[in-house]
Amino acid sequence: MSSEEVKIESYRLEGGEHEEITSLEEISEYEKELLAAGIDPKETDRSGSFLQQDHSVVFAKSLIPGLEIMAIDEALKKYPWLDEYHWNLVSQDMDIYTREVAERPTQGYFLYAKKGAKITLPLQSCLFISKERIRQNVHNIIIAEENSEIHIITGCTVSHRISSALHLGVSEFYVKRGAKITFTMVHNWAGKVEARPRSAARIEDDGVFISNYIMMTPVRSLQMYPTAYCVGENSRATFQSMIYAPKNSKIDVGSRIVFKGKGSRGEIISRAIAADDAQIMARGNLTGEAEEIRGHLECRGLMLSDTSMIESVPELKAQRKNLDLSHEAAVGKIAEEEIRYIMSRGFSEDEAIGMIIRGFLSLDIKGLPEGLARETKKMFDMTLEKVI
Amino acid sequence: MLEIQNLTVEVSGKRILHNLNLRIGDGEVHVLFGANGSGKTTLFLTILGFPSYDVVEGKIYFKGVDITEMDTAERVKLGMGVSFQHPPEIRGVKLGDLVGRLLERRGEGDAKALAERLKLSEEFLSRDLNLGFSGGEVKRSEILQLLAQNPDFFMFDEPDSGVDVENVELIGKITNEMLERDKRPSERKKSGLIISHIGYILNYIKADRAHVMLGGRIACSGMTEEIYNQILTEGFEGCVARCGGT
Are A344 and B90 a contacting pair at CB < 8 A? Predict the structure, then answer.
């Protein structure tokens, strides 16, 4: 399966402007959509929030010192040095989607943790689409300065009133020496939405980058292959993704880690469930270009129908002798024996299948502060409850 | 509690159990001996109602209700509980979550406290079901789930196989408590059926009656100690021959 090319021009660029708001609760008509994407309109236990509706940044506020949250246009004007980070990890010429974002950008966010700022409360950001057939071309830059720490919950979501839209998103993450970024992203699309995120992260000495990706709703097509470059010594990168693909979803998702720093480590873990007529391409690539690096790739797929498809493509590329790269991939169905076992505790067949699916998808999300981990789990359970 | 009448069972068209009869009264614990392949596990899974065990003749009554055609979950809801010999590994389903749901259904009990009785740590509850469990851990996890269910009738498939002495002792002790063996016979309500190849568990659990299975039939029944000693000295077939069975 190769990802079909999106007809960018068939989505419109005009009519995506909105007024700023002073509180997230003002857009209460979309509360459900925001909640589904992990956004708390009350901002309880949040370090700050960012909300972009179609083409306008309607809300951007940091609640604590050491953290900056603003619209990317404003940030590029305010900080000329940001030029160095803008289109540094992702090339404008990568494909038609990056060129589109470069030529016709429609905002995006700038998140910045100052040197030494340890911000354990998560910041929430949301890229929201509320207009039918609109295209959203965002560019995000996230920088964690030396020894800082930020946890980001981000949701890409669409209004219940729309069915089709195009989301193009370029994200560049910079994890400086000893810094840590966790990025938990929920995609909550609709049946005719197309999405082409283009992301990359650069991790310096002793830095940590953790990306958790959750998608449980149908999407017309989604294609992404984020890359983490572990350039620093002992840098770390983790990608975890949990995908439940129903209906006609066409998904081509992978993660790549390029180990360039001595002793760097990383893992890619993915769980994918294909139901109905869904097609999933689950990719993974570990490239070892330095000594003493260690990487592991684990990809598990579960088939729920005979008309769906999962294709798993794990790749390992080693360019040094002193390194360790491994992968395991498995695709199968739910074992009858497992269903019977749970039923023998008094659960119905449907309950048993639900428990097994939930278990299959629920990865231990590592690296999050306890409260956020709990919350993510809750959000995950809620999402799953709806689909199963 | 449980009454099986003229039970004939086929698996994939092959007849495994032949006109089997068994009756376990309230408060009674029975043990079922037999060599590998004698039909013990088939009987166990038929009582539990697994669909690949086809009852071609006969009836199973549980608490006076005909459960022959009932599905597994319904039987369990009536008060049946089982401990498997080789439960499947289920990735991502946490033992603690399953126990939690069982307790929730009952509306009482604390998973951590139950686990402690079985010398299982809180950390153990967060592990995936049976994934990488040792022999002893598998059994204790099974018993933990039974404790959480608190059924009226328990079936144990080989509680003593692949388990060290210390674990058998612990499993025996908890099982005795679950089966109310510490109470006077007239006060006992819970019943059990223990399937055992070697009978080692009987050093720790007092069973009222024993049966020997041979070729898909119950070939011999009697007092537990007597039967057990005969098996030890004369083997299964010798024991059955002495019984006058075939």
Answer: no
